[in-house]
Design brief:
- This protein is of the alpha/beta class.
- The chain has a domain at about 10-110 and about 145-155 and about 180-195: Rossmann fold, CATH 3.40.50.
- The protein contains 6 helices and 7 strands, in the order E-H-E-H-E-H-E-H-E-H-E-E-H.
- The chain has helices at about 20-30, 50-55, 70-80, 95-100, 125-135, 170-195; strands at about 10-15, 35-40, 60, 80-85, 105-110, 140-145, 155-160.
- A 7-stranded mixed β-sheet has the order 3-2-1-4-5-6-7, with helices on both faces.
- Helix 2 links the parallel strand 2 (about 35-40) and strand 3.
- Helix 5 (about 125-135) crosses helix 6 (about 170-195).
- It is globular and about 50 Å long.
- The structure holds glycinamide ribonucleotide (GAR).
- Glycinamide ribonucleotide binds near residues 88, 111 and 177.
Length: about 200
């Protein structure tokens, strides 16, 4: 085996719920050299994402809302060498000190075509219900950098899916989740690869 001097990039995934995106990302990077999911963080002690982390033998941490702003938490992530924070269904607002500690290094996925159906209170099923109520002919997902305003950071990638009149909010959620699982790992990989090339 040839030794490589390319430094490894480390991802922390933050999730509040099921964690299907988190698991897709974990599986993807388990096959990629130099990029590693090093930690899973949740604000809910009963979130299913923690079981998924356990299954993949990954370190996991349960935090409170207050922890997110503390020097100790931020320092802990830095000392583990975390280069990128990936939000995957993480429902707490990321506080300013945390954003400043990870400039342009926090990404989020949102289950609509932002700027439509974004902002405070718009998450998960609520988004799909609003899309359904508006008789939208298409929906999709957005991957964006995180800034201090909900769902307003620079958009990195969007993908669309057509809807038809038979699509219930649950069916819309299912269609959008397929897009999320297809694209989130590769958008993360592209971002990290661009940075390591700089
Ligand atoms: C995903 O659809 C994600 O886009 C959404 O939560 C779901 C998490 O699913 N995020 C938001 O609504 C954030 N505003 P998962 O836990 O199965 O990955």
């Amino acid at each position: 085996m040839v030794a490589s001097n390319k430094a490894s990039q480390k991802i922390a995934i933050f999730a509040s719920g099921s964690g299907s995106n988190a698991e897709t990302i974990i599986q993807h990077f388990s096959r990629v050299p130099h990029i590693e999911v090093a930690l899973v963080v949740s604000n809910k002690s009963d979130a299913y994402v923690l079981e998924r982390a356990n299954k993949h033998e990954l370190p996991a941490l349960v935090i409170s809302k207050e922890d997110l702003s503390t020097e100790a938490f931020i320092h802990g992530l830095k000392s583990k060498g975390i280069n990128l924070v990936v939000l995957a269904g993480f429902l707490l607002k990321i506080p300013v000190p945390f954003i400043q500690a990870f400039p342009n290094s926090i990404v989020n996925i949102h289950p609509s075509l932002l700027p439509k159906y974004g902002g405070p209170g718009m998450y998960g099923r609520r988004v799909h219900q609003a899309v359904f109520n508006a008789y939208e002919k298409e929906s999709g997902m957005t991957i964006h950098l995180v800034n201090e305003h909900y769902d307003e950071g620079r958009i990195l990638f969007q993908a669309k899916v057509e809807l038809d009149h038979r699509d219930t909010p649950d069916k819309i959620a299912e269609k959008v989740l397929v897009l999320e699982h297809t694209h989130y790992p590769t958008v993360i990989a592209d971002l990290l690869n661009e940075r390591s090339a700089d």
